Amino acid sequence: MKELTSFEGIKCANCTEPLQGEYCHHCGQSVHSVLRPVHGLVEELFETVLHIDGRILHTVPTLFFKPGFLTLEYFSGRRVRYIAPFRLMFVLCLLSFFTLHLAADVIAGRADQRHQQTLISGASSNFEDDDTAGEVQKDLSRKLAILDATRAESAKTSGNPALVAQIDATEQKYRQDAGQRLIELGQPNTAAATTAAAIPAAPSTAPSAPSPAAGKHSDDYTMSPVDIRWLPAFANQRLTTLGQHVLDNMRDLLQGNPAQRQEARERVMTNVFGELPGTMLVLIPTFALLLTLFYALRRRLYMENLIVALHSHAFIFLSLLLITLAGMLSTWLKPHAAWTGWLLGFVQLALMLWLPVHLLIMQKRVYRQGWAMTVVKFLFIGGCYFWLLTFTLSLAAVLGLAH
Q: Is Membrane given among the entry's keywords (predicted)?
């Protein structure tokens, strides 16, 4: 399409107002038609991407290295070259939580592997901590279930004979230790059964252990119906269902077999990290309200304090993202080059120290009060924010368990 250099005599196709430029001053519609060749759409796409990239290069370094500067630019009306505060905060929030989710999966997976290796090696049976025959029975069943799952997984993958022999030796050791503990408790030795499921119930006053593979819930993991009189019936039913979900997830996490624990952990973690962005959207306006209360004499509008809150949280999420990435890189590189662990550990420490310093300097520059008053208000606001954040994370954890 040929570019228009003069708009004399041309009217807007939408409102028929005479045009004075590429966009109508009355309704804002562009003079350019959306009916264009495919190459024109590709050119527009590249232009949009490059424009966004240019704003990223202007926004992110400014946000990280110049405390308060980006907020003051917005207050001064210079906004075109920067990403909007809410969009910046939301994108960094999603990126940081996604990276945290990956890091948590890696950490939890390695913890499970270490726990599994400890059980396979038979280094510690811990039956001496069991006070009743029922607890010994429960402990042995859980350990044997993990060994059986590891044996089955090994048979499907590598089929390592040495590993299978080690698992068999460990199983025999666990049975011997459990039998010895039963004898010490004055109970018959029933731990020599050929399978974990064949262990008969030893006489004990303790309640029998719930079976991880069982489809029914034990009494300890059954939710009593919620009956709040001033709530309608469907609300009570919904609360009962959510409570049962919490108990089911806790049962799988604490007493399930390895497959159940891994599935429950992944389910809960996915739900928790899925709830965090939504709960943060409630926390940020509350933080802006705190700024409005503490700086009421500065005559800042609530929307100005909201921009401060958005930029503050954007910086927090950016720092959290960088700290998590540094930790993940350290985990991957340290086995191959030990010096990278020290270097990336120093980077993480520097980022953690820069986080409160940045927020303090930002608060000083935006509200322009003396250092003494700024530090006092920073500590009070930080204390209130800590409890708000604790409540928010707890709420996200409960919501994650309730799905």
A: yes
Inter-residue contact 190 to 182 (CB < 8 Å):
yes
Q: What is the pLDDT of residues 337-372, one digit of tens each?
A: 888 888 988 999 999 999 999 999 999 999 999 999
Q: Quick one: DSSP state of residue 192? A: T
The answer to whether the CB of 121 falls within 8 A of the CB of 166 is yes
- The secondary structure of 203-226 as a DSSP string is P-SSPPPPPTT-SSPPGGG-PPPP
Provide the CB-side half-sphere exposure for 166 (13 A, CA). Answer: 15
Residue at token pair 């290796």: 117
Cα–Cα distances (Å) from 293 to 64, 298, 307, 387, in that order, read 26, 10, 15, 17
Name the DSSP letter for residue 31: S
The DSSP code for 257 is -
Q: pTM to 2 decimals?
A: 0.65
Contact 120, 170 (CB under 8 A): yes
Q: Burial level of 373, CB count in 10 A (0-12/13-18/19+)?
A: exposed
Q: How far apart are CA 350 and CA 353, in angstroms?
A: 5
Residues across the chain:
403
pLDDT digits (tens, 9 = 90+) for 191-206: 665 444 444 444 444 4
Which of 78, 351, 319, 376 lies closest to 69 in space, CA to CA? Answer: 78
**Residue 28 CB contacts under 8 Å (≥ 6 apart), including other chains:** none
Counting Cα atoms < 13 Å in the Cβ hemisphere of 32 gives 12
Q: Which of 402, 113, 111 is nearest to 267 (CA)?
A: 402
